[in-house]
Amino acid sequence: MDWIGLTIFAALMQAVRTAGQKQLTSSLSAIASTWARYGFGLPLALIYFLIVWQQRTDPFPDLSLRFSVYVSLAAGAQLLATLLLVKVLSLRNFSVGTTYAKTEGILAALLGTALFGALLHPLAWLAIGLGIAGVLLVSVSRAKVGLRAIIDGRTACYGLMAGAGFALTALWVRAASLELSTDPLFSAALILLLSILLQGSVCSLLVHRQNPDNWRRLAGNVKVCAFVGLTGTLGSIGWYSAFALQEAAIVKSLGQVEFIFTLLLTYFFFKERISRQEWIGILLVMASVILLLWAV
Fold it and tell me: What angle do CA 117, 119, 123 make, to 5 degrees?
């Protein structure tokens, strides 16, 4: 499976995981809900790494200091971004906040150019812009809110900071993968396992420090927590593997198809009608995907 299939799979898993994460925010704190993503995802990440490792014949690669720094930065950025996104889901205008978070594609392109000198084809920049426009159109239509909600300072701040965190995560994961100079799938599996170990450890301390009773509440929501952990880790396997194979901004931009999956889920499972404005947004995202694949 190449980076295109991995990205589409990751976007689908992310759409499903977000639905479960939203359900958790009604009964758990932001940090406890975030812990579910890593605590319940660790076993799957470990099993996946062992499977990939057993298929290798090359010796275990040397882990440089730069690799360790990139992994630590990526893990920290993703943890912070996840916390912010969970916080956004608890706000009244969470649809608007998650839309701001979806600027991660353009943020990854801008930050990648500024920090790593990544060069993108002009068509790729156009594709990223079209994808963002489509996502904005769909989100504003579904949110059914006024201009005041769209420019709400707290919602915009949390959403944009989450988007920047996810963008930096993608860039640092790719940088860490390139440092290993080994099989991309193995490097992605290793980076994912190390990241979840770091994130789970930090989250565990924060959960206990906030309120020891959080563990009882997590146990009371074990089914939803396991669902979030499973789908979240499956999505991360797709994302990290795709980052190892392709520029982060390109992967994140193709990942905007998550919005199409979300709309299809609401249409087929919740019988909600798709409006004309949402159809236009879908067409813009599809046009973005076509241009993106043409550019690369």
Answer: 155
What's the pLDDT score for residue 99? 66
pLDDT greater than 70 at residue 168? yes
Angstrom distance (rounded) from CA 68 to CA 75: 11
Give the residue carrying structure tokens 């490097």: 187
> What whole-number distance in Å separates Cα of residue 152 and Cα of residue 157?
8
Residues 245/6, Cβ–Cβ less than 8 Å:
yes
Rounded to whole angstroms, the Cα distance separating 259 from 286 reads: 11
Q: Sign of the C-alpha dihedral, residues 216, 222, 228, 232?
A: positive
In the block, residue with structure tokens 């390109």: 250
* Domains identified in the chain, total number: 1
Domain range for 204:
3-55+63-295
- Note the pLDDT tens digit of each residue in 90-107: 655 555 556 666 777 778
Q: Tell me: the pLDDT tens digits for 133-147?
A: 877 777 666 655 544
- For 186, the token pair is 């193995």
DSSP, residue by residue, 214-277? HHHHHHHTHHHHHHHHHHHHHHHHHHHHHHHHS-HHHHHHHGGGHHHHHHHHHHHHS-PPPPHH
Q: Say what the pLDDT of residue 140 is.
A: 66
Largest CA distance in the chain: 58
Give the separation between CA 135 and CA 155, rounded to whole angstroms. Answer: 17
Q: Which amino acid is at 39?
A: G
What integer best gives the mean pLDDT of the chain? 83
